[in-house]
Every structure is written in C-alpha cells, then in structure tokens.
Amino acid sequence: MLAGVIGLGLGALVIGVVAIAKNWDALAQEVSFLVAFSALPVGIVAAFPDTRHHIRAALYVAGAGLAVLAAVFLIRLAWLTREQPVIKIGVSLPFTIDQSDANPMYDAVKQALASLPGADGRQVNDHTREVSHHIIELVPIDDSSIGAGGCAGGKSCPVSAGGRHEDFTDIARDPRVAAIVGPFNSGVAVSEIPVTTKAHIALISPAATADCLTNPRFAEGSCDVAKLGTGSYFRVATPDSVREKALADYLWGSWQEQHPATTPKVVIYEESGPKASTFSNSAGERFSEAWLQHTSVAPAVYPLADASSEDDVRVSLSKLTFTPDIILYSGTGSVGPKLYQAAAQLGLSSTIFAGPGSLENAEYAGYVNHSPGGTLYAVDFAAAPLEDTNNAPNLSQFEEPKLYSAIAYDAAKICLLAIQRVLDDQQHSALDDVALRSRIALAAQPFRLDVENSFRTQVVEKIAWLNTQVAGSISYHGVTGTYSFNNHDADGAAGVTISTYVVATHAWKAVNLDPRSGSRP
User: Which of 139, 245, 479, 486 is the most buried (most CB within 10 A)?
Assistant: First the structure.
C-alpha cells in the first residue's frame, strides 16, 4: 500500500509538471493537492510507525473514493466521445434594451458563420455550422443587465444565454466557449474584459468605442487598461478619439464656411447611469479636446438623467441660459432622438444637432421624421465598404443600421477564421486537440482543469497576428476595412462616417468626407 501511495505521488508529480508546462493552471493546482496528499501519509508513517494500521484503513477508504471519482470521470468522458465536439462563440449584445441595434448585428454574425470558407463545411442551421468535424455554435448573450461595476471579485453580472439565466462568469467557465463577439457598450466591456482575460477567451468588440478600454492615456475610474488588462480583448470599432475628432473638425469647417470668423456656442449633453457613463463621458471629452484645437471657447457640458423621458430632456433644455448653435448628444439609446425632438418643440429650429450612429435606427424615426429641428448629424465608428474585400457581402445585404451590422460581420469573421486556422493546425496533434481537451474539462466538472486554455490562447494569438504576415497568421480584408491590431486596438482602421438626415426623403445620407481620415475633402 505504501508503495502504491508513493507511486501515486510520483505519477501526480509528473502530471503536475506537464500541466505547468502546458499552462493548465487549474489542473496543476488539483494535482499539487494529490502530491501533498500522497506525501502526508509517508511522512506520518516514518515519524510514527504505530499508526501504520490506521493509515492503511484510511488509505483504503480514500482509494475507494478516488476510484469512484475516476470511474465517474471515465464514464462521462466515454459518453462525451460519442457526441460531435462543440465550439461555442458567444455574441454579447443588449438584446432586450436595444433590439434595434442588437438584432441586426446578430443577424450579421450569423451571416458571417454561413459564409465561412472550407470544402468540409456544412451549415446545420442559422446559428450552427460544422467545420473540420467540429460543430461551431453561436450563443446569443443578452448583456442588458450588466452595468460597469465589473464581474470579478464575486460581483454579479447577470446575462441570458440561449434563453437561460446565468452569470457572465459562468459563460467563461464553459470549456467549449472559444471566443465572444461583443459587447456593444463600453460600460459592459469594462465588466467583461477582466473575466475573459482571466479565462483566455478572445473578446472582440465591433462597437465599444471608449478609448480607456485600450489606451492607458485615457484611463478614467474603472475603465483603466492597468486594471482591466488587454490580453484577450480586441476592438475593431473606431475609438472616440478618432470618431469625435472627425465630427468636431467637420462641424467647425461647415460652420466657418457659412459663418466666417465666428465661434458657435456648443452644448454637450452627457448621459449618466452605469451602462451609459463610460461611453458618454469618453465621447464628450474627446469631442471637447478636438473642438479646443479650433477655438479657446470650450463647449458647455450638461448631464442628463439615466434613461431620461421626453419631459426630462425638455426640462433640461429649458434650463439653458443661451441659445446653442450646436448640440452634441454623447449618450446612447433613445434619449438622443428625444433630445432632438424636444429641441425642435422648444423652437431651436436652426440649432445643429449631432450624436452617435444609433440616431439612424429605424426605431427612432418617429422622433425625427416630423420634428422641425435643425440639421441632424450622426457619426458612425465605421466607414463605407472598400473595393478590395474578399468574398465579403455587399453593404446593401445588411439590415439597418448597416454599418453596425457590417462591422459585426467583420468582427465575427475574424473570430471564425482564427478558430478555423487553429483547428487546421491541430489536425495532426493529439495532445493539442480541442475536442479531447473540452471533453476532459466537461467530464471533470465541477473540478476545473483549464485544459481548454491552450486552444483559447492559440485563438487569441491568431487574432493578434491578423494581417501581419507572421507565420501561421490569418489574413482578412473585411467589409469595413483591413484590420491589424496594435495593443489590441485596430486604431481607427474601420474609418468614420458622418451622415446627415434628409427631411424630404426621410433618409440618411453620408456627407462628403474622407472616410479613412475623417477630414473634409
């Protein structure tokens, strides 16, 4: 029996060394317990020979318990090998509170899955595809209830995944989850990034624009790269520093053409609340910085209550002590269109109004179609499609808001190509096989072995090396641009589009703007 215990200890020690070398942190922790457990009775017997019989009985019981656990593990593993291996890609979007943005973006992600190249591919349904003998499944994650308080440290981040109510940390613990497309909101990204970074899951956002998510120079409160980490987070959307500068430059240039040598009075309305404040503060501050490059007169900044009603915004506007020439709404959701409508109702018919691309949503058309307000502009974090796309769909095939959908398609396609390349690389490697790793991790639950981290890390590396010509890297020329990542940010490669609302046709039209630089022609 003593020899068996010593053998158990030596075997566990060898497995522990392999686990450390393979970066299987949780498995290394579990095995370290076995090493310590097997060493304990050896030490006790050496010090107290009379305890040999009691220890032998205890070891029999412990051995029987371990045998039962091993049997359960092997039975579960055998059952799992009968099923085709599944790789999950989460899609984190505000499906409940912002359906007009989330649903078209999710449809674009499904379109990206259906267009994944490869002769061995087979579409199972609109959210599932077979690739290299693996099932890739899209899992919609409704992040509407997540604020900016963070998901780490035992804090709750409730989500709805595939119709089930879970916590976001539970999503990350699923060994079949290889990547997540999203989130839409910068405040939600603040909560999700630490969780996905710890789990080595690629989180690629097509919409979160706050600079503080990737640039330490713009750190603000909990939105701080030093606190969040960026090991597995990627952003394809153009950040606020680029987007708001393009808007400020355009508005200043347009004003000077019509009112030479004058300075317009500008008001910025920022939205509060745990979800809106990260984006709203970032957008407002970046616009002010860009505006002050043209004039020494800073914009006036006023807060709006979280989820302001039509009466709330009307009251906020009525408190102004001057008539603004330009109103910038730097928040999210329906408050912007409500603010535009209220400004028109209060007689600000010549005041220019600008805001995020979400103003273009068909859901908000009722606020702007019949409002006799001033010129209305929306600035998007992506630009019109390029001519060098490879197998990318035409922009007209996407649902409104088209640019939101197009950039979600690109983010998803980057994830999918990375996963596909890793699967191709692993075809002749038994130890690095994701199917084996995920099955072992599932069979061992509720114990966490983290053996899936190697596959996840390889996916992250493929995305990090996108379009770099590094050996084994992936190439992709998307609908909205050709991306590569510097410190996990595409640095505005998606470009900028500024659109104005044409009252006569009830349609949005892009202004004459260089979409790559954001400068006036």
Answer: 479
CB-based contact 338:359 (threshold 8 Å): no
Angstrom distance (rounded) from CA 264 to CA 320: 15
How many Å apart are CA 267 and CA 15, to the nearest integer? 63
**Tokens standing for 360?**
């273009």
CA dihedral 138→142→146→147, nearest 10 degrees, is 100
pLDDT, tens digit, 9 for 90 and up, residues 205-244: 999 999 999 999 999 888 998 888 777 999 999 999 999 9
Residue type, 158: P
Contacts of 193 (CB under 8 A, 6+ apart): 203, 213, 228, 229, 230, 233
Using CA atoms, how far apart are residues 37 and 58, in angstroms rounded to an integer?
12
Q: Is the dihedral of CA 35, 40, 41, 43 positive or negative?
A: positive
Q: How far apart are CA 468 and CA 388, in angstroms?
A: 17
Amino acid at residue number 362: A
Q: How far apart are the first and last CA of the chain?
A: 84
CB 88 within 8 A of CB 442: no
Residue 232: partners with Cβ closer than 8 Å, 6 or more residues away? 196, 197, 199, 200, 201, 202, 203, 456, 460
Residue type, 116: L
Query: Cis ω on the peptide bond leading into residue 446 (within 30° of 0)?
Result: yes
**Contact in structure between 223 and 213 (CB atoms under 8 Å):** yes
Q: CA 241 to CA 226: how far, in whole Å?
A: 19
- With beta carbons less than 8 A apart as the criterion, state whether 299 and 266 touch: yes
Pair 149, 59: CB distance under 8 Å: no
Distance (Å, rounded) from C-alpha 99 to C-alpha 420? 30
pLDDT digit string (tens) for 304-325? 876 788 898 999 999 999 999 9
Q: Where are the alpha helices (DSSP H) in 326-376?
A: 335-345, 365-368
Residue 198's alpha-carbon distances to 153, 195, 206, 408, in angstroms, are 12, 5, 21, 24
In this structure, what token pair is assigned to residue 106?
């999710």
Extract the residue ranges of the chain whose pLDDT is less than 70.
Answer: 1-65, 72-74, 76-81, 119, 147-155, 273-276, 306, 384-393, 428-432, 435, 442-443, 513-521
Nearest to 441 by CA among 185, 87, 143: 87
> Long-range contacts of range 3-9, CB-CB < 8 Å, 24 or more positions apart?
4/63, 5/38, 5/41, 5/42, 5/59, 6/38, 6/42, 8/34, 8/38, 9/34, 9/35, 9/38, 9/39, 9/42
Cβ contacts of 24 within 8 Å, gap of 6 or more = 18, 449, 450, 451, 453, 454
Other CB atoms within 10 A of residue 395 CB: 16
Q: How far is CA 96 from CA 20, 100, 108, 211, in A?
A: 42, 10, 18, 26
Task: Match 């879970």 to its residue by tokens.
Answer: 166
- Which CA distances in Å does 123 have to 117, 181, 320? 11, 20, 57
pTM, to two decimals? 0.83
